[in-house]
Amino acid sequence: MIENSVEKQIDGIRVRECVGCGYCCSETQCDASRRLYRSADHCPQLLWMEEEGRYKCGLMLIAGPVGLGYRAELYAGAGCCSGLNSWRKDVKKRDRLDKNSYWNPLDPVFQIFLKCLSGNFISSDAMKLTMIHMAEDLRTRKYTDREITHIQSMVVKSFRQNQSSFSKGFIG
After folding, report:
1. Which residues have a Cβ under 8 Å from the Cβ of 3 and sit 6 or more positions away?
2. In this structure, are 84 and 23 located in the same domain?
């Protein structure tokens, strides 16, 4: 596929068509993703399309003027300029808990909820009991202990990143 991909030069940079390997989005969030999901380590809009065998950006799939705006901002169709990207040759769904994982298990709406919740005073006891209850619920849904630990760390990280400075000392 790479050998047959269209290649062009833009401002002296070699650019090839995007193969949907997910490398760029998993390595660095775009500005749109950072605005929308500022507490996320990796963009939740990076979507694996099973039937196509590739990743796509959920923001680029939005219809209408909003989608057009994202496609313009994110240079849809401009291609890949990452010459050191080894994923181009191995397009596959990546393990969500790999070291270079981009898996953010938190739904974007839940991230907004955490942002709003983090502005309130929450006791460390209430937070610990909630996290224990969540872990128990996730276990009944067949999540592994490793996945549960990852999810809990994402919740705590999101909460703390959005917590107002006057309430930081209150949560344990």
Report:
1. none
2. yes
